Amino acid sequence: MMKKLPVLLTPYIKTRYPYRKLKICRRCNHFTVLGEADCPVCGHAALQNVEKRAASMLQRSMWKDWFVVLLIMLVGIALSESTKQTILFVAGSLLLLALLWTIQRRTKFALLHVQLEKLFQNEAYALCNGLVKDREAAIKVFESGNKPLAYEMLREIGALVHTDQLRIEQILLLQSFVLRKDMDLMLDPLLMNHFNSDLVEYIGELAKIRRDLLKENAFRYILLHEAQILKMEHGESILIGVAGAVVRMKRYITLYPHLLLRYARKLPKDRFLRLYRMIQSSQTANNGPLYEEVMTIYNEKYKWDEDFQRDNR
């Protein structure tokens, strides 16, 4: 059995949009999610956020629009045949400038997104190549023996690259660490469509130390692959742990009663006590197979237990 490493992981900084982690070099146009200041390709301190690059491109585009309007105004003034025509043309041009400024100001956020899309489309090859080089850099760090840093690098890349291969690499690294409750861990970004035993074992670990990370996507994944999980060496224990995580919220109990029906009898006492209390306090749950199963288990195993008796007083 592989010895797990005690590690400290840097907290993951979340952004509203994943692309905000992406940087581009002003000199060589290299994309990366790993660099802080120095470009990993040309070595210059020339990395800038892609939004900043898009904002600069947008600003130039706006100035071009202003230049065109001013040029038209100057040509109109030069061709005016009277003072009245000049005044009218200047007034019209100033009105057009004011309208242009208002439109630009009100649509700046939308225009910035359009500019970002153009940047990503025009630099699609450079973007893909940059992310590939980031992964290669993470693999080199792993091969050097620095597994925590390699995981953190892959985690950053994973914000933009959604492939099962990258997910598996992160899970395998996580499974080589001693996982603790205080760690900044994640689950939803690592879920896959197909069955993966390493992912299931990771979910089982989280069911012990971070039940809050198990949400609807994780429960659906477990239910979908329940038969295969049961064939694993500790598959049933993992399913019992996941069932214990379902008990965390009434909503989950309502959505996944069949998972609880199958494993309620094997839940640890504290998780069954929580399930019992939530079933008893729910007006809508006091009927149906799950309620009957919970009451059967209660009568067989816990009817005279002091913790349960306290609830019935």
TrEMBL record:
Top-level taxonomic group: Bacteria
Record field: transmembrane: 62-80, 86-103
Keyword terms, alphabetized: Membrane, Transmembrane, Transmembrane helix
Protein name: Uncharacterized protein
Organism per entry: Paenibacillus nasutitermitis
Organism lineage string: Bacteria, Bacillati, Bacillota, Bacilli, Bacillales
